[in-house]
Amino acid sequence: MGKLDKLIKELCPDGVEYQTILDCTQMQKGKSLSKKDAREGNYPVISGGREPAFYCDMFNRTDETITVAGSGAGAGYVQYWNEPIFVCDAFSIKTNDKILTKYVYYCLSNMQDKIYSTKKGAGIPHVYISDIGKFKIPIPPLELQEEIVHILDSFTEFTTELIENLKTELTARRKQYEYYRDRLLNDVEKDSEMIEINKVIKKVININWNTVSQFENWNYIDLSSVNIKNSSINNTVIINVDDHPSRAQQQVKINDVIFGTTRPTQMRLAIIPESLDNQICSTGYCVLRADTKFLLSKWLYYNLSAKRFQIYVEKFQQGASYPSITDTLVKKYMISIPSIEKQQKIINILDRFDKLCNDLTEGLPAEIEARKKQYEYYRDKLLTFKERGVL
To answer: Does residue 341 surpass a pLDDT of 80?
Structure first.
């Protein structure tokens, strides 16, 4: 950043002026427009989300524009546009000839969390011009703004490309793992007897809340407790006889396999760890307890992870808006049952491959997050100036 340091020494050695966003830009509310009242077109309609709400045939802003989402979960989200757009449930920010729009955008992006913190309203949160307009940003000379924008544009492009490459690598590793897992299981099916799951599992007994002490607490596994990406169980809730959901009925044991039957194509699948032995899970899960004379829990888990089971679920789920599959249908699914020794041998192979992929898939997201933090660090550094006249 030699050129930048040189410009700072030449153009603003004593610091720069700070102004409120309201003083140095033109902030303007959007105009209400519903999809049913609009004609379809090519101009993005900017509303309360991170993506355009829809596209229409008219616009109310042109050229460079900054938008801030006005309400909803994405209220406060800052975006930069350099095309005609229709600003709806949002407000726009335009600049004058003394300040670059892209520079102001980077300043606002750098205070994104601060903008989010101004949300008001318990139901649908909103952000307001009156609050965000009070935030101050540094106003260096134009030549310095141009250099900062050039550096951040280049860094943004580099970081975005790097993150996309890492995401591509992550997807490739997951697909590779799934291919070999399914191939191994398919090869076994050719030489082994296929049996319905319900023939090789034990009965699961529900908890009787009428006999439970009021002083006992339990960990409750809700549908949201299972991480879809890595099949871990997190964020359980403490419940008791006086305070428990109506669906908190099934008492699970270590090595039980649980499968989410609500929105089943999400493949909410996990094995109960020792730490959750004898705890409670939602009736939104089908609980499968392997009869270990015939079946290892991990063998059942890997079979339910396979593509063939996903196809089965897609075929037999019912309901359009809130699809589900019954426990009975899950238990009717047929899997191969080789000898326990052969099951364990294949489990060992899949465990090693799973660990290898998980090491990669855990490392790559961490790398992506590190690159984002690196970008944010340098953006913050570039946009931090000494304020003129302030000691």
So the answer is: yes
The 3-state DSSP class for residue 17 equals strand
What class has domain 193-337? alpha beta
Classify 117 as helix, strand or coil: coil
pLDDT over 70, % of the chain: 96
Spell out the long-range contacts of 30-39 with Cβ–Cβ below 8 A and sequence spacing 24 or more: 30/60, 30/70, 30/86, 30/87, 30/88, 30/89, 30/90, 30/91, 30/92, 31/60, 31/86, 31/87, 31/88, 32/88, 32/89, 33/86, 33/88
Q: Tokens standing for 284? A: 């939104």
Torsion of CA 262, 263, 265, 266, to 10 degrees: -100
Contact 198, 331 (CB under 8 A): yes
What's the whole-model pTM score?
0.60
Which pLDDT score, from 0 to 100, does residue 366 have? 74
Q: Dihedral sign for Cα 371, 111, 156, 145, please.
A: negative
Higher pLDDT: 95 or 181? It is: 95
Short-list 259, 310, 305, CA closest to 286: 259
Which is it for strands 334-336 and 25-29: parallel, antiparallel or unpaired? Answer: unpaired
Enter the DSSP assignment of 386.
P
pLDDT at 189: 83
3 state SS for 266-314: HCCEEECCHHHCCCEEECCEEEEEECCCCCCHHHHHHHHHCHHHHHHHH
3-class state of residue 44 by DSSP = strand
- Number of neighbours of residue 239 by Cβ within 10 angstroms: 19
The type of residue at 154 is S
**Residue given tokens 């946009």 in the structure block:** 383
Each domain of the chain, given as residue ranges in start order, spans: 18-139, 193-337
What pLDDT, in 10s, does the model give residues 155-172? 888 888 887 887 788 788
- More reliable by pLDDT, 389 or 159: 159
pLDDT score recorded for residue 269: 96
Q: Which amino acid is at 128?
A: Y
* CA 60 – CA 30 distance, rounded (Å): 8
Among the four given CATH numbers 3.90.220.20, 3.40.50.720, 1.20.1050.10, 3.20.20.70, the one describing domain 18-139: 3.90.220.20
